């Protein structure tokens, strides 16, 4: 599992870690700012219900994509040679296609039963686009991990900016000229298709696709822990994060679901992007440090305080004036979203801190720990929604969801700190 020193050479010089973080952050900054800057316009082009549809679509895609590749894409970063890396990449691209085919058949056969769970039958046609979204999401995640494996941070930053720009531009375009209820979904799918093609083009410039089935079968067995433990853990995590977008329309209304989704679009999604960018550099450095010295605790502490410094001021601002900020920027119809943002602010901060540090569960191969912890997170989140729904109290539900997340991410940070040093 130890990566060849040659493949890591040049990344870990004295200032290289900070340089790589800044390179990825540049693309991440654009990827954050464009959707946020466009949101005041988009909230006037699309209704809360239409935002709710986008949220439900993205939630379904995220849940399915969390298991479609068997999480073999996560093993790409750990492979000892380039041939194995490329074969894992191909495996991670092929499995989602197979998964999506069966998903489409299931949707086709059980469509009426599925839409029967919703009161808004006319807008459930987006279900048919989920398999395409799954293929795009898994392909993007797999290829971007390959780029991370070979420290192509500049290309990753450029692609993140391209994705944000294309999706945002298309959402505005559809909003102005088509006025279709699924405009946000179409724009998202087309934008992700464009950026996935861009990654494939960059990959094909210097590499060929390898179809060695014997090698792929060996890799399936070698990294079997990923589909056995990491895939369920990822499913639990994504389901916990996306469950509100499924359940809020059932207990409350699509309007409240749309407000909830806007909060995630402008608050929680940027948090994920920053954490993901930091993790892509952190996991390379942590892997090298751990296998060379048996510890990456110094890097852990440094990263933890860096993420805290990045997030503390926006968190305090949001906690103090979230409701007023949302009302001014997005319009009075979205004032309740600002209240939700205030409640979620502490959760956003601790999720930001935890983002890159959770990789240590994978590095130390404590995948069963991760699965159990993620399962507990899902249980707490669903319980929070059900209790809030039974009591018909939205603020109570949001507060319980926030508290559940704070408990989970605090535990994740604590366990990761323990794993940052070889205590065995």
Name the average pLDDT: 81
What oligomeric state do these chains adopt? single chain
Q: What class, by secondary structure content?
A: mainly alpha
Number of helices: 15
Unreliable segments of 5+ consecutive residues: 1-14
Radius of gyration: 21 Å
Number of structural domains: 1
Order of helices and strands, N to C?
HHHHHHHHHHHHHHH
Helical residue percent band: over 70%
Ends distance: 18 Å
Proportion of beta-strand residues: under 5%
General shape:
globular
Task: Summarize the topology.
Blueprint: H1 5-8, H2 16-45, H3 48-68, H4 82-115, H5 130-149, H6 153-177, H7 183-206, H8 213-222, H9 225-251, H10 254-293, H11 297-330, H12 335-357, H13 360-363, H14 367-390, H15 394-419
Helix pairs in contact: 2-6, 2-10, 3-5, 3-9, 3-10, 4-5, 5-7, 6-7, 9-10, 9-14, 10-11, 10-12, 11-12, 12-15, 14-15
Short description:
By secondary structure, the protein is mostly helical. The protein has 15 helices and no strands.
Could you please describe the fold and organization of this structure?
With 424 residues, the chain is mainly α. The chain has one domain. It is 82% helix and 0% strand. It is built from 15 helices and no strands. It has helices at 5-8, 16-45, 48-68, 82-115, 130-149, 153-177, 183-206, 213-222, 225-251, 254-293, 297-330, 335-357, 360-363, 367-390, 394-419. Helix 6 runs antiparallel to helix 7. The longest helix is centred in the middle third of the chain and has 40 residues, at 254-293. The two termini are 18 Å apart. The model is unreliable at 1-14 (pLDDT under 50).
């Amino acid at each position: 599992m130890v990566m060849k020193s040659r493949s890591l050479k040049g990344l870990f010089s004295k200032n290289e870690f900070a340089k790589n973080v800044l390179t990825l952050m540049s693309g991440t900054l654009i990827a954050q700012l464009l959707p946020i800057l466009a949101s005041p316009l988009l909230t006037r082009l699309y209704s809360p219900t239409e935002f709710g549809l986008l949220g439900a679509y993205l939630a379904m895609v995220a849940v399915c994509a969390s298991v479609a590749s068997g999480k073999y894409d996560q093993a790409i970063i750990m492979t000892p040679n380039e041939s194995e890396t490329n074969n894992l990449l191909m495996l991670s691209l092929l499995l989602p296609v197979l998964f999506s085919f069966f998903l489409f058949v299931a949707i086709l056969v059980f469509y009426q039963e599925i839409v029967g769970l919703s009161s808004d039958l006319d807008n459930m046609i987006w279900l048919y686009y989920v398999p395409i979204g799954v293929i795009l999401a898994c392909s993007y995640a797999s290829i971007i991990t390959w780029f991370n494996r070979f420290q192509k941070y500049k290309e990753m930053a450029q692609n993140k900016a391209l994705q944000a720009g294309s999706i945002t531009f298309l959402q505005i375009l559809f909003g102005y000229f088509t006025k279709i209820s699924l405009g946000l979904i179409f724009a998202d799918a087309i934008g992700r298709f464009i950026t996935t093609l861009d990654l494939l083009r960059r990959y094909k410039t210097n590499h060929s696709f390898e179809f060695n089935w014997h090698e792929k079968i060996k890799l399936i067995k070698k990294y079997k822990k990923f589909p056995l433990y990491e895939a369920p853990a990822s499913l639990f995590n994504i389901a916990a994060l996306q469950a509100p977008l499924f359940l809020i329309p059932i207990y409350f209304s699509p309007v409240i679901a749309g407000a909830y989704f806007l909060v995630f679009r402008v608050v929680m999604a940027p948090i994920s992007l920053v954490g993901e960018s930091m993790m892509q550099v952190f996991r390379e450095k942590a892997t090298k440090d751990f296998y060379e010295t048996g510890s990456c605790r110094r890097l852990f502490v440094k990263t933890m305080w860096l993420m805290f410094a990045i997030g503390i001021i926006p968190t305090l601002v949001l906690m103090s004036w979230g409701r007023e900020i949302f009302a001014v920027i997005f319009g009075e119809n979205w004032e309740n979203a600002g209240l939700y943002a205030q409640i979620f602010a502490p959760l956003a901060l601790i999720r930001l801190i935890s983002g890159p540090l959770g990789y240590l569960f994978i590095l130390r191969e404590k995948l069963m720990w991760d699965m159990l912890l993620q399962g507990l997170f899902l249980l707490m989140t669903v319980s929070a929604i059900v209790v809030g729904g039974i009591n018909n109290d939205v603020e109570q539900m949001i507060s319980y969801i926030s508290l559940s997340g704070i408990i989970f991410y605090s535990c994740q940070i604590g366990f990761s700190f323990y794993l940052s040093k070889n205590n065995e």
